[in-house]
Amino acid sequence: MKACNTSIQHTQEQEYKPGISLIEASRYIRAPPENIIKLNANENLFVPQEFMLSIAKEAIEEVDYRLYPNGLVDEVCEKLANYLKVDKDNILLGCGSDQLIDLLMLTFGRSGVTTIHPTFTYYYYRCKLHGIPYRYTVFNRDLTVNTHELSRILEKSSMFILCNPNNPLGHVVSENIIREIAETFKGIVVLDEAYAEFSTIQLHKLPLELNNVIIVRTFSKSFAAASIRLGYIVGPAEVINTIRKFQQPYPVSGFSLKFASLLLDRIEYFRRVWNEVKRVRDWFYKELKKYSKLHVFPSQANFVSFGCNIECERVSSELLKRGYIVRVFSNILGFKCLVRVTLAPISILKGFIKALTEVVN
């Protein structure tokens, strides 16, 4: 494994303080007015609302709401197994990937959870809620992993969680490094693949080879179905059976299951959507690279992030004045502000670039 030393400070033995500034107009976040474009939550804006509404209407008519959704669980697991080319015994459904991550922490992470920063801050807050020790190292400036430091910290933990592709940077850690970590770590390795379908690296078959690896995915991003709150785990069958014992009964509604089942029937349509996201991502990345004041991170997700040395509050407020909500983070990899922009159709992003030009200049 490659070890690389940098001058970045890490404080993994101290209490973690996120240091994240979310300078957004909160009154706009949940239901922004029509003249505000929401590019802060990595929602899939490439699937027309009319398409999803037609799925919802079909799902409404096909569910017997008087019954517990046992049959629908099997239906979705079988379709996921066919899509992923795994056995349905390797799949467990849950109320969003967040609920499943929480369950994994409670089941396997009691001795401590380790991760690599920057990452999804939900991991930290769930550990804090449950009194679970939280440890971390930091990505090097070139986005490689300081594996020597990581190995040292992992000795104290029972679970390693890696957001891959990373949120908020968008890059991926290679399969070789992940395999080496899993083969030497005595605990459980959890790969949060929320953005996997947008990536060139998908590791959902790794649990079939390594019995300590678990993949977590969601319908929120790739399938444009954030509102149905459905996530799933891919893992070794014996591990899935262990997790199932601690999960609440019927964690997913019948409507959400039928909705997901109908989405999986249209997998070829979504493959075309994912290809379009990748095409737009390449275009947007090249456009942002034209700005010398921005450090643009290569992305394998449905967003692109860039670092700059402008205060977060100014970036966020000036973009909001021009009609765009973005996600901003302070003090990431030495930048005053990291700006994460959800991808959208090019017509929307062209307007964003015009607004960004005014802010940067």
Concise description?
The protein is an alpha/beta fold. It contains 12 helices and 12 strands. The strands form 2 sheets. Strands 2-8-7-6-5-3-4 form a 7-stranded mixed β-sheet, with helices on both faces. Strands 1-11-12-10-9 form a 5-stranded mixed β-sheet.
How do the strands and helices of this protein lay out in sequence?
Layout: H1 26-29, E1 37-39, H2 49-62, H3 70-84, E2 91-94, H4 96-108, E3 113-117, H5 122-130, E4 134-138, H6 147-154, E5 159-163, H7 175-184, E6 188-192, E7 213-218, E8 231-234, H8 237-246, H9 254-264, H10 267-288, E9 295-296, E10 303-308, H11 312-321, E11 324-332, E12 335-342, H12 346-360
Parallel strand pairs: 1-11, 3-4, 3-5, 5-6, 6-7
Antiparallel strand pairs: 2-8, 7-8, 9-10, 10-12, 11-12
Helix pairs in contact: 2-9, 3-9, 4-5
Descriptive overview:
The protein has 361 residues and is an alpha/beta fold. It folds into 2 domains: 26-47 and 276-360, Alpha-Beta Complex (Aspartate Aminotransferase, domain 1); 50-267, 3-Layer(aba) Sandwich (Aspartate Aminotransferase, domain 2), CATH 3.40.640. Helices cover 39% and strands 17% of the residues. It has 12 helices and 12 strands. It has helices at residues 26-29, 49-62, 70-84, 96-108, 122-130, 147-154, 175-184, 237-246, 254-264, 267-288, 312-321, 346-360, and strands at residues 37-39, 91-94, 113-117, 134-138, 159-163, 188-192, 213-218, 231-234, 295-296, 303-308, 324-332, 335-342. The strands form 2 sheets. A 7-stranded mixed sheet has the order 2-8-7-6-5-3-4, with helices on both faces. A 5-stranded mixed sheet has the order 1-11-12-10-9. Helix 2 (49-62) crosses helix 9 (254-264) and helix 3 runs parallel beside helix 9 (254-264).
